[in-house]
Amino acid sequence: DGIITRDIDYGNVARNELAQMTNKNNIKGFLKDAMVGADVFVGVSVRGIVSQEMVKSMAKDAIVFSLANPVPEITYQEAKEAGATGWIIKPFVPAKLLSAIAKVVR
What we know:
Elements: H1 13-21, H2 31-35, E1 40-43, H3 52-56, E2 63-66, H4 76-81, E3 86-89, H5 94-104
Parallel strand pairs: 1-2, 2-3
């Protein structure tokens, strides 16, 4: 449970490779720890798992992709109030998704 780190053998080739490709700072802990200072959150998990405090801990102008189905990790209004400047919350409009991605890769 928690953040996938580089120093654990997960007994699964794909997960071990993912650990090597991501989490370059080898942050340990849980979602709230991973979000501190993050530019982007991409969620495909469960409803309500992200709080406004977690979004507030992210970097300035953070972007939130809250894609849990059928209810997102955090609502659009909560993400906006917490300071996110870009977000995609399900259901979404494809053009808005492309616009949010463009902000990340600029």
